[in-house]
Amino acid sequence: AQSVTQLGSHVSVSEGALVLLRCNYSSSVPPYLFWYVQYPNQGLQLLLKYTSAATLVKGINGFEAEFKKSETSFHLTKPSAHMSDAAEYFCAVSEGQGAQKLVFGQGTRLTINP
Amino acid sequence: DTAVSQTPKYLVTQMGNDKSIKCEQNLGHDTMYWYKQDSKKFLKIMFSYNNKELIINETVPNRFSPKSPDKAHLNLHINSLELGDSAVYFCASSARLAGVTDTQYFGPGTRLTVL
What pLDDT, on a 0 to 100 scale, did the predictor assign at position B1? Predict the structure, then answer.
């Protein structure tokens, strides 16, 4: 069965600093990978997804992620953090073809310090 | 122009009661889902319906019964509510593109509190 591990349940960075949220996955088949963001008291919003095309994926709000098969990783980055980036971030892998059955990591809470 | 909507947003009820949460999507998707997010923010899929047919049924107590009257709606009925059912429940939907399930879009969530 597929699984996702997000390293660090809480990450804190200064405004303007690099954001790096780590995600490692386990999958016996080529995975589909996703990053979602959840703002307080809201639903999940898709940031970006990897579906076996380009390994460097660009998403919304200046985020991007790189699929590294050799490291089974899909880390999320943003060059310069903004206060509005404070939220919970979830990495997810799909079981089977497509995004039918998502398995989520435990989430990483990102805090931005002024 | 809400894509995936859920009602109610908040639900507070007593143990032993029966309650329903409704979900509607106006995206024209044919697959819908229910997820449970616990107090530690862990998200886990409960059910998935494709064109009103149940296709994913995780290990969920049979007190939980999804119902899909049409492909735009997926409701969740919970019987005999227990304290452990307190969570945020998210509905989601997705389309199928070239035979592959595409991105899931989530609703705003329903926070259920069982007293």
Answer: 61
